[in-house]
Design goal:
alpha/beta; TIM Barrel; 2 domains; eight-stranded parallel barrel; three-stranded antiparallel beta sheet; about 45% helix
Length: about 375
Amino acid sequence: MKSPICDMFGIEFPLLAFSHCRDVVAAVSKAGGMGVFGAVNHTPEQLKEELTWIDDHVDGKPYGLDLIVPTKSVLQAGPVDEQALLGMIPAEHKDFAAKLLEDGGVSTEDLDESRLDHTHFLSNLTPDGATTALDTAFEHPVKLLVNALGVPPQMMIDKARANGVKVGALVGSAAHAAKQVEAGVDVLIAAGGEAGGHCGEISTLVLVPEVVRVAQGTPVLAAGGIATGSQMAGLMAMGAAGAWCGSVWLTSAEAETSESVKDKMIEASSADTVRSRSRTGKPSRQLKSPWTEAWETEGPQALPMPLQTLVSEPALRKLDKLADGGHEGARELATYWVGQAVGLMNEKETSGQIVQRFKQEFAEAFEQLSEAIGA
């Protein structure tokens, strides 16, 4: 296809797949799109292992890497002692999380230990940790580096430039996009409020043309609520250079999502998601469950990142494991990040099949538009 994204990365189809699963990344790149590996929770050693695996399974096709290098965090001043960090969590928040598990018949005896284990991954949110992660990434043929929260720090842009790697950034408003253009990013990802995970409030349909207007020629990828090739075609008709999708891969055969949550997603409608701070401390869209509902209606105010993550993530991972083992209370509570496109995700496909379906639906939509104008 003729697209600045295809030209920039040497790919066949301008569909980029954000995934925490290396198998999805490799499968999408091999199918003609481009996988982008989400690695915020990986230590440098784990990141090296995952990227080496992708190198060995992507058949030389390009892929990208997504990191969170926030400009604001309680860790931004530097490393914090793990026990001191855990001590910053109010008892009220820990008690509320424990109560929700207990109400679902789930034991809470190992929650504090799990929280301590989870602190090991938070060094990536410090300046030194982010630098180490970037240096590890540049030992591999990564073609795109994306920062998911805020303007990438200058050191991130400088290191990418020195290694011939393009830089992308997610934006939720035209004002954010203008700041990213000023910073010199190569790709803007306009993520509408329909998106799963961290997202803003403006809908994709409105956001994409707004961002295109201020992009000053910087390619714009449409994101948020996209699960079909026809949606992708419509947004490209508005000026997008391609699509960035995350949710649609979560029900794929390769995805890291627990099987019980995959089943819940397939059964869900587009109304079955909620945008909440209760998981990470920043607004993120996720599948509704009694867990999310309780935090929204009864729970204490969310803590700043990464403290709220330490409250929620260990508990939610425990729920996933128990739910896959048949624990009904855990299955009921279980949730995961997903966008409103979940209502269009009605069957399990492989990642490669999803890419091919996007291509077919895109072509069909293009034909319909051509007929409409008599072309």
